[in-house]
Amino acid sequence: xxxxxxxxxxxxxxxxxxxxxxxxxxxxxHCLPGLDDGPIDVSEAILLCQALVDxxxxxxxxxxxxxxxxxxxxxxxxVRRTAKQLCQILHERGxxxxxxxxxxxxxxxxxxxxxxxxxxxxxxxxxxxxxxxLPHEVFIDPLMLLKRLDxxxxxxxxxxxxxxxxLACNPDCVSRWSDYRPCLQITAASLTGDFGRQCEEAAWTFxxxxxPAVVATDAHDTSARAPRMTAAYQRLSHRLGRSAATLLCxxxxxxxxxxxxxxxxxxxx
Length: 269
Hints:
Elements: E1 24-29, H1 42-54, E2 57-62, E3 65-66, H2 76-92, E4 98-101, E5 104-106, H3 111-116, E6 129-133, H4 143-151, E7 155-159, H5 165-169, E8 183-187, H6 188-191, H7 197-206, E9 213-216, H8 229-240, H9 242-258
Helix pairs in contact: 8-9
């Protein structure tokens, strides 16, 4: 963790949200040092951030784990402060990456109250989209939480459903959530087969659901969990066409950061 700096909400390196042509926005990445199971120190964080840039990413939502086994850690002010400081270090080193604060929030019945008291973070600190991670050990249906979040004006983004064993084997379950229009966040490396055949097949299946979707790296390091956005974009372009790949990897992710309505893949296929 970087130890000093401003605690102001939204004070991370986010002054310029004008994306360079062709650049990706990554809405789920564990790139902050010393907070969770991402980089252990600043040196590793810099390497990961450089890998993101090399993968064509210009903007990244730093999203350390909150709740679950990280309950009590990664408070929003710490995430905001660390994101701002890492962005400054990158600027000094000439690494052109904009970092926004966020979190990968484990399913918890307290989420609405924690949101209201600023104890968990939304995507880009925008209070419009929330990365929601379901427990891997057992399937807990988030339907009632999706309803409550919707009433608060917050849309859930279900992170990596293709890597959840129950959902991967029962992809029709997501249709139960359609009234609340959650977004499905597919991991880039799943589309390229890095997580195995089941995850790859489930990822393509989820993209056919009548729900908004985005592709994100969920990168943790530069080896086993490295960013794979460019490879995923190329795979999507080959199978679904360039317009679909752009919607999933660029347009919807930019809209999410901006707090705008997301597009559905069926609109461009």
